[in-house]
Fold this protein.
Amino acid sequence: MRVPPAGFLRSLRDLCDDRGLLLVLDEVQTGIGRTGKFFAYEWAGITPDVLAAAKGLGGGFPIGACLATADAAKGMTAGTHGSTFGGNPLATSVAGAVLDVVLEKGFLERVAQTGLLFKQRLAEIKDRHPAVIAEVRGEGLLLGLRTVVPNMDLVAACREEGLLTAGAGENVVRLLPPLISGEAEVSEAMTRLDAACVKIEATLASHARGAAE
C-alpha cells in the first residue's frame, strides 16, 4: 500500500529508455479508476510499454487484459501469445459496461474527491487512536492503515463492527471501498472504524492493568 515517491516512476521510465528496456506495470489492483485516475501511472505523467489489468475491469466478473504499445507488441505475432479463456464474449461485454460507467464525465473526479475525504477522515482517526494506527497510506480509494497493534486484530475488530477490511503484509489493513462510495459511506465507515479502535484500546488498557497487578 505504499505510494511511490514523487519522481520514482519518471526515473524508472528514463532508465528503461536509456537502456532499451521495456517498462511493464501491473495495474491489476490500481487500474480502472481505483486511485482516482483511470490508470495509476497517470499520476506520474508517464506511459508504460506493457500493462496488465484485471479485477476492476470486470466490476466483479472475471476478466484480464494485457495492453501494449505498438512497438512493444511487435513480438506478439500470431501463435506467440495465447490464453485459455481469452476472447470471452460475456466477459468483454461486462467490461464494456464497466468502462461506460467509469469513463462517464465526472466519475473519476468523484473517486478522487471521495478518496481525499477518506484520507482526511482516516487521519483524524489516526490522531485519535495513536495506540492503534500509526500511518495512513494510499491514493484515491486504495487505502491502507499501518497499525501499531497486529493488523489482524484491527481487521477482526472492524468485522465485529460490520466493516469489512483485509490484512496486507504483517502490519497494514487495506481499505478498498467501492468506487461509487460517497460522503455518507465515508462517514459510516469512519464511525465503525472508530468504534473498532475504541474496543482495541479498551483491550490494551485491560491488559496493562492486569500486568500492573
Summary: The chain has two domains: 8-102, 107-212.
